[in-house]
Design brief:
This protein has 418 residues and is of the alpha+beta class. The chain folds into two domains: 2-18 and 230-417, Enolpyruvate transferase domain (UDP-n-acetylglucosamine1-carboxyvinyl-transferase, Chain); 22-227, UDP-n-acetylglucosamine1-carboxyvinyl-transferase, Chain. The protein has helices at 22-31, 48-60, 85-90, 97-105, 124-132, 163-174, 189-201, 232-245, 260-268, 307-313, 334-339, 370-382, 393-396, 402-408; strands at residues 2-7, 12-17, 38-42, 63-67, 70-74, 107-111, 136-140, 143-147, 155-157, 178-183, 204-206, 212-217, 225-227, 247-252, 272-276, 279-284, 294-295, 320-324, 344-348, 351-355, 364-366, 386-390, 412-417. The strands form six sheets. It has a four-stranded mixed sheet. Helix 8 (232-245) packs parallel to helix 12. It starts with a strand and ends with a strand. It binds ligand EPZ. The site of ligand EPZ has 23 residues, from helix 1, helix 5, helix 6 and helix 12. Ligand EPZ binds at residues 22-23, 26, 93, 121-126, 160, 162-165, 186, 304-305, 327-328, 370-371, 398.
């Protein structure tokens, strides 16, 4: 079984182009089902979750193949509308296929995606949105059967701005005649990216990035070519790494506005950040200070996906930082692993109080989830000696080559066989 071995003590220098956004690519791969034609996802990141999506698309009958760095999906041969349990369990966000399958096939059958490392992952908002479009949804024995005999455009009001429910509602609405207005929609940049992809397909979607998205459904759709936005969470990961070790890095291929709450926090901690069209430059002396409370919230608030990596960056800061995790019930599982390296973080429900320590000591640790795993690697960059990070399949779900990217910035990080 492989581990990521991290030798602490290096500062990070250099330039890096950020991978395309995982959380754009996944809903866009589901959206390729809608057109029954060939789509090209340019510069697609090679991630476990992309492989899992490819396996689902192939199971549905689509042709999926890599051509260099581009992923080609031909959904013309799609011939089934059900996803087996083991495929649903492999990737929590596989529920994003529901709306697209319903739009294309008129019915969909899949199992509950189940909880994940972050806690229960309900899909009630997804299902209520589809019911508002006229879908019949039966749930039995962990399987969901959705049939859409009389699907039509509707007013959809989301109880909270769920990213996945917003995306499922948009994809389903593209396949039904009439106008659909989604209010209290999530505003993440990845939803704007999905809208741009759908419009290239010939769909009429507008308002993504605001709380109200309108879809004129039933348009004839065709294949297209698309390059996704840069991954703002991967970018946050590298900025936090350089902030913690001290260094001077420049990231390219990401919109600085998409992670302004993260760069603001890093500036509060003592880093200097400049940015421009598709680049962010950060310098840090490495000696960071505690910052104002970090409260995670839907975009444009502080992203829950960056909570763990910012925490890792502040482990040796002077002073104290309070984190409040408002998005997921169980998103502090990395804290116990960080404590094995000498971190001092006290948990009280959704609150984590981080007391900066002078030194961290390398030790064997295990990933608990995707972003928590990245945080362990960032902690290892700061620790005396070597830190071995196990269960690295979690990291591979969302980072194309975290060790390689950090090595390119001067870190001593490599994947080794144990
Ligand atoms: C997306 O997950 C992202 N995943 C997550 O990134 C991200 O953390 C999350 O949005 C929040 O930004 C992808 O885009 C593939 P939500 P999603 O629905 O859509 C509750 C990563 O690390 N909720 O916005 O599942 C839910 O329990 C991953 O890249 C309901 O109650 O998130 C959570 O508390 C992790 N009912 C909150 O809403 C529902 O029907 C936000 O969830 C749906 C969600």
């Amino acid at each position: 079984m492989n581990v990521i071995a991290v030798e602490g003590g290096r500062t990070l220098q250099g330039e890096l182009t950020v991978q395309s956004a995982k959380n754009s690519v996944l809903p866009i791969l589901a959206a390729t089902i809608l057109c029954g034609d060939t789509c090209v996802i340019e510069n697609c990141p090679r991630l476990e979750d992309v492989d899992a999506s490819g396996a689902i698309l192939r199971h549905l009958g689509c042709r999926v193949q890599w051509q260099g760095e581009d992923l080609i999906v031909d959904s013309a041969p799609l011939c089934r509308g059900e996803i087996p349990d083991e495929m649903m369990r492999r990737m929590r966000s596989s529920v994003i296929f529901l709306g697209a399958i319903l739009a294309r096939c008129g019915r969909a059958e899949l199992s509950y995606p189940g909880g994940c490392e972050l806690g229960p992952r309900p899909i009630d908002l997804h299902l209520s949105a589809l019911r508002m479009l006229g879908a019949q949804v039966e749930e039995s024995g962990g399987r969901l059967c959705c049939s859409g005999g009389k699907l039509r455009g509707a007013e959809i009001v989301l109880g909270l701005p769920s990213v996945g429910a917003t995306e499922n509602a948009i994809l389903a609405a593209c396949g039904v005649g009439g106008t659909t207005v989604i209010t209290n929609a999530a505003r993440e940049p990845e939803i704007v990216d999905l809208q741009n992809f759908l419009c290239k397909m010939g769909a009429e979607v507008r308002g993504a990035g605001t709380s109200t998205v309108t879809v004129e459904g039933g348009r004839p759709l065709h294949g297209c070519r698309h390059r996704c936005i840069g991954d703002r969470i991967a970018a946050a990961t590298y900025l936090c790494a350089a902030a913690a070790t001290g260094g001077d890095i420049c990231l390219r291929g990401v919109d600085y506005r998409h992670l302004s709450t993260v760069t603001t926090a890093l500036c509060q901690a003592g880093c200097r950040v400049s940015s421009g069209e598709q680049w962010i430059h950060l310098t840090s002396g490495g000696a960071l200070r505690g910052i104002c409370p970090v409260r995670t919230s839907p975009y444009p608030g502080f992203p829950t996906d960056a909570q763990a990596v910012l925490m890792a960056a502040l482990l040796r800061s002077s002073g104290t930082t309070v984190f409040v995790e408002n998005m997921f019930q169980n998103r502090y599982r990395h804290v116990a692993e960080l404590a094995r390296l000498g971190a001092d973080i006290r948990l009280e429900g959704p609150v984590a109080v981080l007391y900066g320590v002078k030194r961290l000591r390398g030790a064997p640790v295990r990933c608990t989830d995707l972003r928590g795993g990245a945080a362990l690697v960032l902690a290892g960059l700061q620790a005396d000696g070597v830190t071995e990070v196990g269960e690295i399949h979690h990291i591979k779900r969302g980072y194309g080559d975290l060790p390689g990217d950090l090595r390119r910035l001067g870190a001593a990080v490599r994947e080794i066989k144990k």
